[in-house]
Amino acid sequence: MDKTIPLTKFQPLQRVNIAAIDEGDSGLLREIEKKGLKPPVIATIKKKNEDGSMEIEAGNKKITLKPQLAAILLAETVAANKFIAAKAETTLSKLDAGNTAILKEYTGERNLLGRCLSLGFTPGSVIKMLENYNSGPVLVKVHDTAVALGRDLADHITVTRTENAC
Amino acid sequence: MLAKPENKTITVALAGAPNTGKSTVFNLLTGLSQHVGNWPGKTIEQKTGSVRRGNLTMNIVDLPGTYSLTANSAEEQIARDYLVKENPDLVVAVLNAASLERNLYLVAELIELSPRLVIALNMMDVAQQQGMKIDAKALVHELNIPVVPLVASKNQGLDELLTAIEQEYNRPLGSQQLKHIEYGSEIQKVIDHVAQLLDDAMTAPYPKHWTAMKLLEGDTQINKMIMGRSAGEQLASLESYLREHESAAVTIATLRYAWVEKMMAATQEKPPLGRVSLTERIDRVATHPVSGLFILLLVLCLIFGLVYSIGIPLQKLLEVHLIEAGHTFVNAHLSAPAWVKGLLANGIISGMGTVLTFIPILMLFFAAWAFMEDVGYTARAAFVTDKFMHSLGLHGKSVLPLVLGFGCNVPAILGTRIIDSPRSRLLTILVAPLVPCTARMAVITLIAAAFFGSTAIFVAIGIVIFSLIMMIITGLLLNRFVVGGEDSALLMELPLYHLPNPKIIGLVTWQNTVAFIKRAGTIILAISIVIWILSYLPHGDINASFLADIGKFLTPVGKLMGLNWQMMVALLSSFIAKENTLATLGTLTGGQGAALTAQLKILLTPAAALAFLVVQVLFIPCVATVAAIHHETKSWRWPLFTVAYQLLLSFAMAIIVFQIARVL
Fold first, then answer.
1. What distance in Å separates residue A101's CA from the closest CA in chain B?
2. Model pTM greater than 0.90?
3. CA atoms of B151 and B499, how far apart (whole Å)
4. Calpha distance B376→B382 (Å, rounded)
5. Which value, to the nearest 10 degrees, does the dihedral of the CA atoms of residues B551, B554, B555, B561 take?
6. What are phi and psi of B598, to 5 degrees?
7. Chain-centre distance of CA B190, in angstroms?
8. Which residues, numbered 100 to 139 in chain A, qualify as contacts with chain B under a Cβ-Cβ cut-off of 8 Å?
9. Using the 8-state DSSP alphabet, how is residue B96 labeled?
10. In chain B, which residues have their Cβ closer than 8 Å to the Cβ of A120?
């Protein structure tokens, strides 16, 4: 995050990653958090007003920022691929059936780590989601076998989506 | 003169992951020579058997199915402790050729313990169906380990496997080196560093280097052992170093899989991408939350249909031709004192009869279970029920023993061994006795028919549903308030579907039946005799016996449920075995069959009959079930808890039902 600049410097229609917050009093910080702009957040600039206030869109929500807020939000432009990368990272439980992803990290309890590893849930492994009905366990294919995981467990495995090959 | 070849006996351990057909290989190698026991101090089955080949006798030990040798579970601990401590002459790694990638991970771990290894590459036919081409020769070349392709389900390749075992055993040590896994210098340095912090005395009987690796992998058992054996500065530096390298566990596993991938590249030609296998197509329906449950229901209906259309008539047949014929013979043709006749007829023959007449039903359940397991369906049943079972603190796999419970609660409790989480397993054991078994169903059917005429079937079904609701409530309560510990998530492999092997199903059914007779049979017989003695002493008249005294003592409680002392005695006798209720009522009222029905109508009002059905279905589990709970939990705490809980529950519910039904 070395090249962040104040949000006010960006122009409408630019896509930005709000990466950090400059010094500000706790009231302003709380306001930012309330608006759901706790970094990092991807946003699109919609409108810049004369008085320094801004309208942006983040997470499909229109948000109006008063000048004091816009001034302390530090952002960077989002390169197209970086934007995809940010969106591509998710938990295994949110992967739709038929999609594949690469395992990034196991974030759950340490005592289940060993079992996950021995079943092949190692970083870099390719996982294909076979069945995911948004409740109950999921069924994935990893290292050539079908493995069922409880939803709690799937919630604690982060993955990076890959472009679907087929 | 030629020297006679010496007879030799060697020990061969079978290692392998679940779903590799390892048990099939074991069963086919050892046949009926096998001995089934428990691993010392564990409730995990230990199977041993032997096979003779010329002058070489191989004692074969079937290790528990494991994916790795890191002690993530009791099974894994048993497997690796056996390899390290018992030092078998040779290890056969049974691999599933259709999921070689997964299975080679275990080989990577086995190589680290450097035993004499032979690889049995099973399910070659399934791999072929999946469009995989596996070059066994290339695998031999890569690993320097003999590899034998097998199709155990079709009895192919077993002879070749025995030859390979013999050859490998006779090969002088050191003539061929196992190729160890290269972990790369970086992690190797870390492992070496940990090894330096250890000494041989601390790690015995495990190899030092291996112990270092397991410490880094976060193996709880090894960690506990080493921390217990070290102290002071050594302990402190070890602990801090391990904490610093906590991520090593992931690194080591990842590197092992990288090694596996290298092996795979050399030996397997992958099927063309985008191919959807038959298993995947079936699973779209079989694991779907709606259609999956529907299929499960259908499967259960089929099993019950089978049991009721074949098992029950068989049971009746045995009852007539064995028990009743036995009674008649003893009473009519034996000249002996009355008490000897009584003991023989009502104690021993009835007791044995209880067990024997039950066997057709149980065998059908066991066969259905073995069939579902062999085909690969059981894992799907666990998958579709996991969400619901989880809400009770149970586990998807709990559904299987609970279904078995409809046949008999004893195998249900033994069957909980498949649940890998200790907490879910305990909860399943505690709720299983509330599944109405066939014995209870027999009593319910008869009494409902006697009192409720055309609505009897609905009353009977209602009672079963009521019992299941009680089971769910009990599960919720125990999960919330009684049983402590962590919930464990579902994590299991779903094997490929395959055609069943009748030989294996037959063998498994036979083993389970024998185990049931040994486990439950002896207890039921012993208690039958004790109860008979109580019903005979002191005067030889049941109406004035100790048993009657106990029944009369319970009259005040019985009254609240509308039950007289005869009904209470009948209830108590269900402790031996649930169907004894009817036999006891017969003895107490002097009626059998239609006469018993008539007698019951004199003894009970319809409200009391309903209360009796309720108390009977929820009453304390039979003695064989209590013994099974004791055996499986290795404590008296839980069997006593179950007895007390179900005593209270059954009485409370029956009193409520009677008091309400009386007013209506």
1. 15
2. no
3. 12
4. 11
5. -110
6. -65, -45
7. 41
8. 106, 109-120, 122-125, 130-131, 133, 135-137, 139
9. E
10. 101-102, 105, 257
As a whole number of angstroms, the distance between CA B504 and CA B404 comes to 19
* Interchain pair B274, A139: CB under 8 A: no
**Mean pLDDT computed over every residue of chain B:** 85
Q: Where are the domains of chain B?
A: 9-170, 185-254, 291-663
Look at B387 and A135 and tell me if their CB atoms are within 8 Å: yes
- Specify burial of residue B34 (Cβ count, 10 A radius: 0-12, 13-18, 19+): middle
Question: Is the distance from CB of A55 to CB of A64 less than 8 angstroms?
Answer: yes
Contact A150, A108 (CB under 8 A): no
* pLDDT class of B618 with cuts at 50, 70, 90: very high
CB atoms inside a 10 Å sphere around CB B504: 20
pLDDT at residue A128 is higher than 80: yes
Does domain B9-170 fall under CATH 3.40.50.300? My reply is yes
Residue B560 has pLDDT above 60, yes or no: yes
A22-48: b (≥16 Cβ within 10 Å) or e? eebeeebeebbeebebeeebbbebeeb
Nearest by Cα to A161 from A78, A80, A79, A104: A104
**pLDDT over 50 at A166, yes or no:** no
Contact (CB<8Å) A131/B70: no
| pLDDT over 60 (residue B273) | no
Residues 271-330 (B) with a CB less than 8 A from some CB of A: 273-274, 279-280, 283-284, 287-289
CA dist B276 and B109 (Å) reads 31
Give Cα separations from B95 to B17, B24, B118, B343, B373 (angstroms): 7, 12, 11, 55, 18
ipTM: 0.82
Helix (H, G, I), strand (E, B) or coil at A59: coil
The DSSP code for B195 is: H
CATH superfamily of A89-161: Ferrous iron transport protein A (FeoA) (2.30.30.90)
Q: Using alpha carbons, select from A149, A146, A131, A154 the residue that is nearest to residue B289.
A: A131
Positive/negative CA dihedral, B317, B322, B323, B327: positive
Contact call for residues A17 and A42 (beta carbons, < 8 A):
yes
**Could you give the count of Cα atoms lying within 13 Å of A9 in the half-sphere of its Cβ?**
11
Q: If one looks up domain A5-78 in CATH, what number appears?
A: 2.30.30.90
Map out the domains of chain A as residue ranges: 5-78, 89-161
* Pairing, β B35-38 against β B8-16: unpaired
pLDDT by residue (tens digit) across B510-531?
888 888 888 777 777 787 788 7
Angle at B526 between CA B520 and CA B531, to 5 degrees: 120
Nearest partner of B105 among B66, B68, B61, judged by Cα: B68
DSSP-assigned states of every residue in B418-468: G--SHHHHHHHHHHGGGSPPHHHHHHHHHHHHHHHGGGHHHHHHHHHHHHH
How far apart CA B369 and CA B509 sit, in angstroms, is 9
Q: At what angle do helices B232-244 and B208-216 cross, to 10 degrees?
A: 50
HSE-up (13 A, CA, CB side) for residue A20: 10
How distant is the Cα of B289 from the closest Cα of chain A, in angstroms?
8
Are B424 and B385 within 8 A, CB to CB?
Answer: no
* Residue range A22-49: mean pLDDT, rounded: 79
Q: Does B490 contact A148 at a Cβ distance shorter than 8 Å? A: yes
In CATH, the architecture of B185-254 is Orthogonal Bundle (1.10)
Q: Do B249 and A125 touch (CB under 8 A)?
A: no
Same fold, A5-78 and A89-161: yes
B194-202 contacts at long range (C-beta below 8 A, 24 or more positions apart): B194/B238, B194/B241, B194/B242, B197/B234, B197/B237, B197/B238, B197/B241, B198/B226, B198/B238, B201/B229, B202/B226, B202/B229, B202/B230
The 3-state secondary structure of B215-237, one letter per residue:
HHCCCHHHHHHHHHHCCHHHHHH
